[in-house]
Design a protein that fits this description.
alpha+beta, 35% strand
Amino acid sequence: MEIPLELKYTKDHEWVRVDNGVAVVGITEFAQGELGDIVFIEIETGGETLEKDEVFGTIEAVKTVSDMFMPVSGEIAEVNSKLEDTPDIVNKDPYGEGWMIKINMSDPGQVDALLTADQYRELVES
C-alpha cells in the first residue's frame, strides 16, 4: 500500500498536499481500496468556506456511501471536474489525477496537526 511521505493525512483517510499555500485534498489508497469500485462523487461545496471536519462531499462506491471531511478550514477554490465523468480515476490514481478539491486555507497551521505518513501507516495497520 502506497503512503507517500511528502503528504499529510487525516484519521478519516484524506490526504493533503500543500502547493503554494493551497491545500490539495484527496482520499488515500487505503480508503479507495476499502470502498471498492467508486461509481459517483458529489461535491457541491465549490466556492464555499468550510471549517475543519465539516463535510465537503460524498463518495459512492458499489459497497457504500461515505462522507468526505475538510482536513483544514478554508474556501474550496476548485473541485476536480474530471471526477464528474470518471469517478473511478480515484481508484486508479488516488494521489494524482484523483484529487478531490483545492482549498485556500484560512489557517495554514492546521496542516501541522495532521498525521505524518508514519503515523497514518500505524493507524491503518493497527
